[in-house]
Structures are given as C-alpha cells and as structure tokens.
Amino acid sequence: MAAHSSGVPENVPFRTLPRGGPTTIVAAVLVVLGVATFFLVPRGGEDPGRIWRAFQFNWLFWASTAMGMVMLAVALHLTNARWAWSIRRFALAGVAFLPVAWLLFIPMFWGGKDFYFHHWIGVHGDPVIDAKAAWLNVDGMFIRDMVALTLLFGLAFRFAWLALRVDVFGARGDAGQQGWYDRLTGGFRGVPEEAARSVSGMNRTGVFLSLGYAILWSIIGIDLAMTMMPHWFSTMFPVAFFIAGFHAGMAATAILVVLFRKRIGIERFITPTQFHDLGKLIFAFSVFWMYLNWSQYVVIWYGLLPHEQEWFVRRFNPPFTTMAQLVPLLIFVFPFLALLAAWVKKIPAYLALVAGVILVGNWIERFMITTPSVYEGSTLPFGLPEVGIALGFMGLFLACYVWFLRTFPMLPSPAFMAAQDPATIEVPVGAAVTH
Amino acid sequence: METVTRSAFHPDIVGYEDVNRDANRLLTKPGKGYLALLGMSVGLVLLAAFSLGYMVTFGLGTAGDNWATYITTFVFWVGIGHAGTLISAILYLFRAAWRQSIYRFAEAMTVFAVLTAALFPLIHIGRPWFFYWLLPLPSQRHIWPDFRSPLLWDVFAVTTYLTVSSVFFFIGLIPDIAAARDGATVPWRKKTYAVLALGWRGTDREWRHFTRAYLFLAALATPLVLSVHSVVSWDFAVSIVPGWHTTIFAPYFVAGAILSGVAMVVTLMVPVGKIFRLEKYFTKVHYDRLGKLLLLTSTIVGFAYGTEYFMAWYSGELFERGVFWDRVTGQYAYAGWCMITFNAFVPQLLWMRKIRGNLNAFFIISILVNIGMWYERFVIITPSLAHSYEPWKWVNYHMTWVEAAILLGSFGWFFMWFLLFLRFLPGLSIAEIKEVLPPPMKNRHAEHDHAPKPAAAPGEVLPTGYKEMELR
Fold this sequence. Notes:
Order of helices and strands of chain A: EHHHHHHHHHHHHHHHE
Order of helices and strands of chain B: EHHHHHHHHHHHHHHHE
Largest sheet of chain B: none
Number of domains of chain A: 1
Largest interface: A-B, 76 and 62 residues
Number of strands of chain B: 2
Number of helices of chain B: 15
Structural class of chain A: mainly alpha
Number of strands of chain A: 2
Structural class of chain B: mainly alpha
Oligomer: heterodimer
Strand content of chain B: under 5%
Number of domains of chain B: 1
C-alpha cells in the first residue's frame, strides 16, 4: 500500500479521470464569463487600460502557477522525493496549460503594451531611460520574451514527455487517449531500457528546466512587471517573482489533489503522511516568500533612496493600502498560523482551504506588482473586471488540466519507479566492493 | 549468485559492530600526521596571538584601512559555518539519508567556524576588553547600544546561531558519547564521557525524547541558516554604498555561505578520510552528492553575480555601473576575477560525473572555492569602499603583516579545535549511520521480500507493472 523502503509501492493501478462529471461545464461557463467580461467592459472613460491590465496580471498569475506546478514536479524528481510518488503527477499536469499561456501572451502583450509600458514607450530625454534603451524597446522585449517562453515551455514539454512515455506503454485507451499513447511511445525499445532512459533524461531536462526557470522567468518578471516603473530596480525582484510562482504552483497542486483524487479513484494511495509533507513544503515556502520580500523591503526602507522608495510609496498609500496589507497576510501570516500544527496539515480539505488562501494572496500580489506602477486614479481599480478575467483564465486552466487528467495515468508505473535510485543495493557475498 | 543487502551509501560496512569499532578507533590512535597538523595549527594560533598583542600595544593603525581583512575574514568564517547546519538540520528535515555519516563533523565545523568568526569583532574593535558594550545591557555610560545599527543585529544573530548550533551539536552527540563511554578504556576518558553522556542508557523512553528534541532543534536551526548570513549581509546592504546597497544581498550571502561551507566540508573530508581511513563512511555517493550541492550553490551564486551585473547596467545609474565596472577592470580586478572564476566558473566542472568522482580534482576545486569566497567578501567590502561616491574617498588598501598573521592564525584556531574534536568526541554519528544500514536479520533474505518483482509476475495487465487497468 504505502511506499516501502525500496520506494516501490505495490498494486499500483492505471487510472485516469473518468469522463463525464460537471468539470467540463464549469470550465466552459467560466471561459464564457471571462470572454464576456473582456468584451463587455467599456474601454473608454477614466481608465481605458483597466481591462488590459487585468488581462496582464491574470496572465502573470496563471502562467506562473502552471509553470510553478511543473517546477514542483521537476524538484520532486530531481531530489528523488519518494514520499511524493503518488501526487507528483498532479503537479506535472500543470504543463497542459502552458500552450494556452504561450498563445495568450501575444494578444496580452500587443493589445495592452501602451497601458503597461507608457512610462518609457516613446519617452526621450530622460537620461536613465535613454541609458537602458537597449532593454526598454517593445520589439526587443517581445522577441526576448517569446524566445524565453518557447524555450522554457519546450523544456517543460520534453520533461512531461519523458515522464509519461514509459507509463502509457501497452495501455489501451479510448480514441482520444490512444492517439496520445501511440505518439508518446513511438520507437519504444522495451520497458526497462525506456524507464532508465526516462529517469536519466528527466534528470538532465530537469536541471536545465530549473536553470531556465530561474533565468527566463526572471526575465519575464523583469519585463512584464519591473519595467512598468522604469526608474525602479531591485536585484531581489526577479527572485521573489519566480519563487512566488513556485509557491503558487505548490498551493495549486494541493488543491487539485484534494479535488480530483477521489474521482480518479486513487485516494488510497494519497495518505495523510503525504498531505502532511505537502503541507510542510507549502508552509516552508510561505516563510521563504516572506523572507525574500522582507529582505527586499528592509534594504529599501533603510536606504531611504527616493528612486527605490517610490515602489513602496505607490503601493502603501491609498488606494492600494488595503491590498498591500492583504498580500503578506494571505501568503504568510495566515498560512503560517494555520499550518503550524502537525495534525491540521493531514486534513485534506483544510490543507486545500489554506492553499486556496495562498493562491488568492498570490493572485493579488501579481496585481500589486503591476497596476500600482502606472495607475494614477484615486479609487482602487479592482473589482468585477479583474475577477471576471480571472474566472475566464480559471476556466481555461481547468479545461486543460482536466484534459490531462483524462488522458494520462495519474500514478507513475512501477517500472518507472523501479528505475529510480534505490536505498539499498545487493552486493555479492564475500566480494570486496571497490570504489 | 548469492548476494547480501547493503546500504547504497555504505556498501562496505558489514554490520552495526563495524560502526562502533571505527568510531571509537578515531578516539584512540592519533598518528604522526595528526600530531603534525595539530602542531602546525597551534603554531599559527600562537603567531596570531603575538600579532594581536602587538596590535593592541601599538594601536589599530598597525592594521590597514577600514579593517578590510578583519571584516572580510569575519564574514568568511560566519559563512563557513552554514554548510554544517544545512547538512545537519535541513538535510535531516528533507530526510536526505546520505547525510548520516558526514553531518557530525560538518556540524562540529559549524561550531568552530562561528567561534572563529566571533574573534574578529573582538579583534577589530581595538580594545577587546570593552566588547560587552555590544551586548544589550545599559553600560557604565548609561546608554543602550543602538538597535538601529545592523552591527548590533549581528551580535544577536551570531550569538543565537552559536547557541542553537552548539546545543544541537551536543544533543546529537549524547548517544554517541554514551557509546564512547562504553568503549573507553582510559579511566579519565571514561569518567568524562560518563558525565557528558548524561546517564544515557538507550532506553525506548530516552530515544523517544531524543528524537523529538532533535527534530525540534533541527526545525529551529533551519531558519538560522537563513537569518545569520542575511543579517551579516544587511551590515552592508542597508547602507547606501554602491556595490553594497542591493536587495538580493540576503539570499545571495546565504547561498555564498553554503557554497563556502560545502567547499570547506570537502576540504576537510578528503584529508580526514585519508588520515583516519574512513573510506567506508565517506563513499563516492557522499562525494557525488556534495559535488551536486556545491554545483547548485555555485550556480545560485553565479546567478546572483549575473543579476547584480545586469541590474547595475539596467539601473542606468552612474555610480552603480561605475562600481561594478571597477570590480573587474580597476585596481582590484585580480580579486574580482578570483571571485568570479573560482566561485561561479570553476565549480561548473562538477557537472561532469568523472570530476565529482575524482577526489583530487574535487579537493582542488574545494580549495579554489574557499579562496574565491574569501575574495568575494574582500571584493564586496574593499573595492566598494575604495570606489565610493566622491573621488576623495578613493584609496588603496594594503594588508599589513599584522592582519596577515591574524588571518593565518584564524585558520590555525579553526583547525586546532577541529582536530581536537576528532580526537575527543565521536566524529562519526554512530547511531545515525546505523539507521541507513539494513538491520541485521537471522535470515539474511527475509527483509527484501518486497523488493521489485520481475515484470512478468502473473496477474498484471500491463508490461509497465500496473496491476489493474480501468478503461473509462
């Protein structure tokens, strides 16, 4: 049942999410709501860019979360984390949203660039902006970001391909599944060989994916959020940006495990110990998130340099004061207190609830790192348009996610797990082992 | 062929009795090599003591400007300590079982490194007998220390770290000291261990309390790994000196600290393994994992260097750009390139499994990283001050013989404590190494009945080992 010391559990079934159920309808309704919001919210008035900025921060949030989920799967693989064997595919499934994120980036960028980057687009004579014209130009930025997204998402697909290839070998699926199984297992050379190849290939791809995530997601963060205030710079910002995405990915994974484990029929493999461990990881990253943000804040607060303080002045003052207070409350203070005890982390619904709070906090954080940089009005530009766009993204995410759950087995195969590093080895009796 | 099950980390250890024998052997037979090393270390300490006496007599002017060497060396030694806590506490929480055989001496290294670091604030204040002015007590001047000063935050951070890591070190030692007590033949040793073991008998109750305490201390020590060097980094970062005032400093210092600490672990492990013949305990698995850890931290440090240079350029500011350009082209360029090459580039060789497995290569890399990390702190401190806002501040720094002697002496001091530790306290964690060994069984094969079965067992529906397949 549970993992033995050898790391290979017994009686693992091949299970996918059954068809039917309300998820598809829910996703469709959410997408319709999102699209309707996008087209119905008036473009003119005091703040014509509002809907585009809602699009922008929601893209940042959902793309970061999906990418963070993949990075969680990568981290669990690279660290050979046997405890997470039955939940890591829930993290990997985030990969299904990446093509959508890639496509949506294009309209998000070109449609709204004048509402995100007007502090530097077409601005001349400012010595600081002129000094970094090489970085701050729209075409260069678009090409750079597209290359970054293509590279990163491409590596993520390769990682997922390697992870799934062995497991779907020999499986019989319906028409939709079988096509993917055949595509994934093209040129299959035998189970043990392919399992060994997958494990080492995932090690390699995973390492590059980790490097890629740190560097390329930093660039995405710098381009789409930091440059909105072109005089401001902080070396911590990109780090805090991609770590927050990783944390959000963790929280999303916890929620999705809790939501879908019973319908897939694998709840007996996801034990309280695993929820406990996942809870500890989420807790630790809440603390780490606060550590990074505090380390950024204290240096700027103490330094008292005007061009640095501007970032916090814009956010701590009305109309954003409450939102600025909510972010650390939802990502750090509440989860810290709520997840401190050991036993509460083992209650799936409770863990999912706290993870939900963290996700909301992260969602607001993505709003707070973008909009206040350019918003000049006196009322908080946060309400139905932002929520409507978020629902639309949620629908798209759910649709992609559920497609993955329906198509691929949600537990890794014993053959794959047997190819990972064992805890004990067999040595011939009487033979000296040499180094 | 008949086989026996062995730990993947220690394929040469036959059973529990090997561990007790080898750990106790460390305490009993010092070789000539050991005595020679100890003699050298004590010699260096004496040299430093003489130089310190000279400096106290003739004044701080005998050291160079800005105490550059003292502060650099302080940060260097605080950093060294971090890997010990990482290996003993964080890897424990992560259940990384390969840590068992190396964590004890990594942790000892932590304690001694912090002890070494703690000397430098005392040395550089010039009148060491007034050090208690740093403590949060109203002094005879009826004033409190300035709580807004990051230098005071340092006092709290470092003393907390020293306290917690010493307690953690000692608690972890208790069962092993009891084993040393039981194995000791020299009467005074037996008595001393009996006192230090606190009457440990190895009952269930004791183990239950011990494992709880150990877990809690590990959880408390973990944030300290981050906090100590973060606070040290803020000594610099909260000021507005270009090259110091940058927000990434806290995690960047922590990653650098772990990098230097892991390098020091390797620098110590290779000779200790050779001198004391511990090849069974420090196996290629350990060097491989340490190599990966070094590679990871080196890459993080390299990422931080890259971020700093990128942001200095991206800032578009004269001073930011100036100071970073000066680091690689100015009068201290040798130090700047030492730091970049040894910390960010040389460890990248460890991507190759061959190099991770080659002890000589790995040992040399670890020493280069140690040098590089000392230079990193030097580069942050000295060229930044020597190239600050106004040109009249631009000065050259030259290390004096006093500083050089005290720097060398700090290594002597560290190695002296470390060598004494190996001789008097169990350097291998007897209890925890046994945790990763397969338990002794009457029937050698009974325990791996649940090992992976051949893929063709009856009742399976899929060649990949899935037991059932539900078509949906």
